[in-house]
Amino acid sequence: MAWNNPFKEMANSKPLFLTIYATVLIGIVFSSVYVFSAIYSSPNSTYSLSIAPSASSVIKAEPSGQASNFSGRQADGDSTAVNPQLQSKLLKPIWAVPPAGSKMPDLETFKLSKELVQERVTDNIVVVTFGNYAFMDFILTWVKHLTDMGVENLLVGAMDTKLLEALYWKGVPAFDMGSHMSTIDVGWGSPTFHKMGREKVVLIDSILPFGFELLMCDTDMVWLKNPLPYIARFPEADVLTSTDQVVPTVTDDRLDMWQQVGAAYNIGIFHWRPTDSSKKLAREWKEMILADDKIWDQNGFNELVRRQLGPSVDDDSGLVYAYDGNLKLGLLPASIFCSGHTYFVQAMFQHLRLEAYAVHTTFQYAGTEGKRHRLREAMVFYDPPEYYNPPGGLLTFKPSIPKNLLLDGEHSLDTHFALVNFQMKQIRTALAVASVLNRTLVMPPLWCRLDRLWFGHPGILPGSLTRPPFVCPLDHVFEINVMLKDMPNEEFGPGISIREYSLFENPSMPQEVKKSWLNVHLCQEGSPGCQVNSTGQSGVLKLPKHSTEEMLKTAFSKFKDVKVIQFSSMQDAFDGFTDKTREERFRNRVKRYVGIWCCVENHTPGHIYYDMFWDEKPGWKAAPPNSTADDHPPW
To answer: Of 60, 102, 432, 584, which is the most exposed, with the fewest CB atoms less than 10 Å away?
Structure first.
């Protein structure tokens, strides 16, 4: 047999056999390469989970004509060259927890290194976020959204050991940033907040020399669609960044037109390729913020990148030369890489019939609690099962809004406050009923006629796609951080838990909760069947209007096991507390629940305080304080 010269044998054969032999031999060669690569390529970091890969981690061929996630650009410099064989390994699965009884590896194992990052790289790209333990639930939400869409080439930077350990035991790949940061919420704008920003810049400057593309994200954002195919459409870009743009510059999914973007470039979502220009930018950015701790990381980035802006790289891509004249920059469209304004207020992507890739909880109020609540309202935040079935049960009601308050007349300060105040009064009653029944209140959707910002504006930003009236985020009116804050019982009475208006629409809501439901219809006392403990055959409880605290307790005493109680209305539902001390404490609590509207143009101060008890003050009118001396909440 002529096996000693197979290529000569194939040359003398018919074309069909030539094809067969070629196919077989090529298959043998590639199989051998894969087997030897799998045998001799051992993990470089012992923290990784040694479990078979999940189906979502298998690399599939892209359909013909569809862009691959790989940009095709090699990192600059020999030190950043990447071995393609190493990247062919299947990623180790996320959410696979370590074996029971095992011990967590030494902290040294979690140090940031090229080998550690390599373990999570696919197509030369890794998606990274970072934070401290206070943002654990945000981080888990961020990870779950990515893994649900099949993106597992991700890493989380842990700024404290508590977070690092928690992520390890949940099977989430993490590394130690060595920050030794506090585990509590540091608050936006605080010195520690700015320290976190500087850590981000150092992190970018550390990862880029490894030769991997980096999609860097803040933890207070959520991925709604796999962004990697979109990023791959711009292989020439050195940096792609999100922005705070609130007026659309394009109506499709192209990059925003850099000539029309006047807002800040937002560094909560941005992608870096390891090119000479991007590494130079990262290095200078790091040196800038480390030299002056008063510089906010985002301001520093904007200052450097805008040092030179223009001309366009070409006629089609949307990229622009920036920074040193060599950096190729692209601005991610604000319509689909959304800010807190373009997503929660404008719903810009819906108006333009587009699919949103991401939402970043900017343009919001009430701190971290406000961010969390917005994501919950949008049903994109992951909570544990007990969140949907709180102790004591849930209370909800059907809000009633007259058409004239919602739609008639100009959208002005007067019509906006008339609309909000009408809803606020119903919510105040609902809070009282929830307090009496010791139930968690499901807040209703809140309608607004004017936008809220932190500077003077005409009510609706010109050029934006905000269409009044609109369902505004709860933090536009209510101080969610105050509502959720622990306050002394002896001064403010018992706390009142709340949930978001979309709670019952959330797919995570258990059916057992929704099935345990009691409808309550208000009726005029003295009318047929309108009395305490009157339940019709339909399972509807009839409750007299203007019920007292004792009447409520009596009426619902036998429904304590019912998980959801829904009132048909809250207008005239409650006549007040029997215990005047408790009533005073309740008032002391809830008057702090509302914030400000901002802001009137050309007036200082320009904000107007909401007043929970506006209806008790004859002649109350929405107006900003006359002077700084008058600038205080209405208590």
So the answer is: 60
